[in-house]
Amino acid sequence: MKPLPSIADAEYDGRTVLVRSDLNVPLRSGAVEDDFRLEAALPTIRALRAAGARVVVCSHLGRPKGIDPAFSMRPVGERLGVLGGFPVTIAADVAGAGASAAVAAQGDEVVVLENTRFEPGETANDPDLSDRLAALADAFVMDAFGSAHRAHSSTVGVAERLPSAAGPLLLAEVEAFEKILGSPDRPYVVVLGGAKVSDKLGVIRALLPKVDVMLVGGAMCFTLLAAEGFAVGRSLVEEDMLDSAAAVLASSDGSRLTLPTDLVAADRMAADARHRVVAAASIPGESVCLDIGPETAERFSAMLDGADTVFWNGPMGVFEWEPFAAGTRRVAQAIAGSSAYSVVGGGDSVAALRAMALDGKVSHLSTGGGAGLELIEQGSLPGIEVLRARSGRPAPAPGS
After folding, report:
1. Active-site residue, 196 included
2. How many folded domains does the chain comprise?
3. Does residue 161 fall inside a structural domain?
4. Residue 205 catalytic?
5. Domain that holds residue 79
6. Is 85 a catalytic residue?
7. For residue 56, how far is the Cα from the chain centroid?
8. Residues 120 and 197 in one domain
9. Is 370 an annotated catalytic residue?
């Protein structure tokens, strides 16, 4: 496979470099609630500044319907500057007069453009927007793995118009996923959770032939249990996915799927609901299950303890509520305590690890949940392929 061009392959001294970062972070009352993606973006920005570049950063934030002050990049950019220890200027727009003025007046500060989705052409990869973004810089660095599955102007269009490279974060993400998709050390154990089996059926189909065992928890397990003939009470079941789930279970690799044998059943969907452990074969009709049970958690843990490669995406239950957090906690502890090469992706899985201060004990913590799943399913992503296509083209040089 053609290698990705990296920033180590180019000369950036005195150049203006547009960096597509993933700064799509949660906000609460106008302030950044979680620094994870901002901290992940900093090494690339610092490396470019150390190389003498003037750095301009762009990102989307949420899903605004047009220009919406609630989704302004200002609090995100300001927090980025605090964490990075460098001055930041927030441009008045994405790629208009305000952005041009901010870049023209740029000194030592990092310029953060406004929310790319304030531009109606962003998600359509509009040529005019791509042209205007490209006009702001001499070179482009794609570092937003979490957005690499989207062929937008700020991820693909601008890369087609400027000398482009992958940032260190994107390279690390690609390397991690190549390890679990290529020839991983065995035993290879995959843990999948989350709400809907429909979101991960393609991933199940792609990974099942490659793994030694696939452990499934979270609400998505109930569609699979129902397809096996279990009564699951009022737990979430995607009725339109039952045939597809049954086909996966009946496939030649279906025996590698491991489902819960016990669960935590509650009388309602609430943090203070009455709850008890029940066998998977004996879920009361009026109950909703909100976590895997202790027997399942220990069985999953034992399988993870013996693994040499692990991929985890999705919690085992409603871990935000303490009565239903034990399954996710036990899986997280098993992965963190394992000597396996481990890749963890998905916002909830990452949040669980960070909440337990275990995020530094896995091999790779991915910044892109949906992008990682799509990479597994499709084999590549638009924001990666455009860089491969640029590989070998002349790098930016001073005065060019």
Report:
1. yes
2. 2
3. yes
4. no
5. 7-170+381-390
6. no
7. 23
8. no
9. yes
Per-residue model confidence as pLDDT tens digits over 275-301? 999 999 999 999 999 999 999 999 999
CB neighbours of 53 closer than 8 A, spacing ≥ 6? Answer: 12, 13, 14, 15, 16, 17
Mean pLDDT to the nearest integer, 348-358:
92
For residue 157, what pLDDT is reported? 98
Of the candidates 15, 20, 37, 210, the residue annotated as catalytic is 37
Q: The tokens 């013996």 sit on which residue?
A: 306
pTM: 0.92
CATH number at residue 317: 3.40.50.1260
Size of the chain, expressed as the number of residues it contains: 400
Whether residues 321 and 241 fall in one domain:
yes
Q: Are 313 and 191 in contact (CB under 8 A)?
A: yes
Cβ–Cβ < 8 Å for 216, 257? yes
81, 146, 157, 347: the active-site residue: 347
Structure token digits, residue 390: 């640029």
Query: Residue 153 falls within a domain, yes or no?
Result: yes
- Residue 68 is assigned to a structural domain of this protein: yes
164 with 59, same domain: the answer is yes
């570092």: which residue's tokens? 143
Joined together, the tokens standing for residue 91 give 């441009």
The catalytically annotated residue of 74, 161, 196, 299 is 196
Catalytic residue among 96, 202, 254, 370: 370
**Helix 326-336 and helix 347-355: axis angle, to 10°?**
80
